[in-house]
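Entry 14: structure prediction run for non-specific serine/threonine protein kinase. Input pasted below.
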Amino acid sequence: MVKAPSWIFEPSDLDNIEDIELYRPGGFHPVHISDTLDSDRYQVVHKLGYGGFSTVWLCRDRHLHQYVAIKILTADESNRPLNREFDMLQQLEQLGVSSNHPGKEYVPLLTRHFQIDGPNGSHRCLVLRAAGPSISTLVQGRSVKGGWMGGDLARGLALQVTQGLAYLHLCGIGHGGSNVLIDITETEFHTWPQNQVYEIFGKPVTNPMRYISHAQSGDSASAPSYVVEPIDFSAVDTKYLDPRIQIIDLGQSFYLDTPPTEGVGTPIDYRAPELIFNEDPSSHSDVWALGCLIFEIRTGQTLFEAYFGNKNEVLTQMVNTLGNLPEPWWSAWDERREDVDKDVNYYRGD
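Run finished. Output tokens:
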């Protein structure tokens, strides 16, 4: 008999938040706005994002008088013998010293790292350059005034992404994802006081953490008193964004000479056919994702969109756009039943 999951918290009223059930030993570190980290050097100002293994916060560096992004890993992820993202960032830091490749400025730079101890364990914290929204967020959230994006700007962003990916490959690293951010206007940003950050990006939207039962609240130190939604960059005036990109999220990255056999977490919309059919990731699958992203940059539309997260949706759109899949993938597409064939013929006008 399968044991039902033991939920600790009531569902939050907010949608765009991390899995609150991971506020437990081994999980997320509880963070509140205005908290300080690393002997009071960094003060938490807002939230930038989250993932399955981390939360990311906009913080003020009181020593250097600038804003940074601090990625706080879960305790379990922090204490693995090998943390993929941390290892990749360190390698890029070492290789970047002697490189003048133009793509170097578009990959993440680990400026510092430190550990913090909390109620859920010891957490590794990565200090990175603060950046704005992902290209996908801009596509999904709104169109830039006057159309999607001017040709010169779109071409410039596409070139930067291509150069950044080429640099990762030169360093022997595959990205394995599609997460590319647009920078915040750097010359002004670091001079903003906290109230101006809130005026431009909006005040943090919070919601109380509520325990299902009083008995479960005994370990309340494991969770923050409230959760925070990330900045909604779709509502931010584009004049505060800089036409420069930053490839992030190396948690899905891999060494090109030893690709992971368990695959990578490339979103289905950007996944190359070989990844859909459970083959190893490679530089080629990265280039496929790059092509999908460039299409998105130039048109404001997703090339192969999975409305329901179904691989058959994506494969059908690929066939509609590019023709039948080459072998052995065409024959390996077990779910290509009559209804899928009809969809393909319908999309292609057959």
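Notes: The longest strand covers residues 42-50. Will compare against the previous run tomorrow.
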